[in-house]
Amino acid sequence: MVVTGGARGIGAATARLAAERGYAVCVNYRHSREAADALVGELRGAGARAIAVRGDVGDEADVVRLFETVDAELGPVTALVNNAGTLERQRRLEDIDAARLARVLATNVVGSFLCAREAVRRMSTRRGGAGGAIVNLSSMAARLGAPGEYVDYAASKGAVDTMTIGLAREVAAEGIRVNAVRPGIIYTDIHASGGEPERVERMKSTVPMGRGGEPGEVARAVLWLLSGEASFVTGAIVDVSGGR
Ligand SMILES: NC(=O)c1ccc[n+]([C@@H]2O[C@H](COP(=O)([O-])OP(=O)(O)OC[C@H]3O[C@@H](n4cnc5c(N)ncnc54)[C@H](OP(=O)(O)O)[C@@H]3O)[C@@H](O)[C@H]2O)c1
User: Fold this and answer.
1) Where are the domains of the chain?
2) In this predicted model, what pLDDT tens digit does every residue of 6-55 receive, in sequence order?
3) For 22, which of 2, 98, 118, 151 is 20 to 30 Å away at the CA?
4) pTM, full prediction
């Protein structure tokens, strides 16, 4: 399994659960080298096969190298979790410049496309592969729009939803299932990137279940979608949002 942005947050929870369930795991990271190395050490200590590979998912050469490294060290990918995602400081659309749009779209949209491309090239039975499954991390923001916070981020996740539906149908007869998870408000450091580390506390009263979610609660949905338990599920977008 390749987990992009796997060193922390939802990605790390997914990598841990995947290792527990017997996957050999590639933890991709961009900046969090120490966290990635520590996580890989932990997974190996528990008996799993795991590697850490640096790479910016928005950089095509990095993505190609990431999957080639996995080919060489773990064997061709059978499960991809397009988890790497980014948002920037809370701001109204009228104050967002082109450089920020390019950064957000490069990671959230271009990154998801490039990683999916490399995975499909290896998984597709049309190309001699053994099949596989892809899960994209979308967001409830795709439906809610994140007004006053980050409409750019929300729109990038709308693109992820659309890619999920299109790619799922494109490769459905080639042994590949493609689904997405739309987390609601989850306790991770992403909110600090938006300039509001305590955002979950402020927002949790808007969640029908009355609380924020834990990364592990998202990871369990991801692992279900990747598993044989979800063998007839493709093109689905699963909300993991406490009813929000
Ligand atoms: N937390 C929430 O409330 C929430 C809600 C809805 C959706 N999501 C989505 O869930 C996913 C994980 O979010 P999170 O909350 O766990 O975020 P997080 O704690 O901020 O972690 C983000 C991860 O993405 C990686 N990343 C960012 N840009 C990257 C790039 N260009 N190339 C490779 N890796 C990159 C980071 O790697 P480095 O640290 O190595 O740079 C980090 O591991 C994201 O797609 C996010 O949009 C989160």
Assistant:
1) 70-240
2) 999 999 999 999 999 999 999 999 999 999 999 999 999 999 999 999 99
3) 118
4) 0.99
Residue-wise burial string across 148-167, b where 16 or more C-beta atoms lie within 10 A, e elsewhere? ebbbbbbbbbbbbbebbbeb
Spell out the CATH class of 70-240: alpha beta
The partner residues of 180 in beta bridges, in order of sequence, read 136, 237
Q: Would you state the pLDDT for residue 224? A: 98
At 147 the pLDDT is: 98
In a 13 Å sphere around the CA of 79, the CA atoms on its Cβ side amount to 23
Counting ligand 1 atoms within 8 A of each CB, the residue from 4, 33, 56, 86 with the most, and so the one to mutate, is 86
187 is catalytic: no
Query: Which residues have a Cβ under 8 Å from the Cβ of 195 and sit 6 or more positions away?
Result: 89, 90
Angle, CA of 151, 212 and 81, to the nearest 5°: 65
Q: Which residues line ligand 1 (CB under 6 A)?
A: 4-5, 7-11, 28-32, 56-58, 83-86, 107, 111, 137, 139, 183, 185-186, 188-190, 193
- Give pLDDT, residue 142: 98
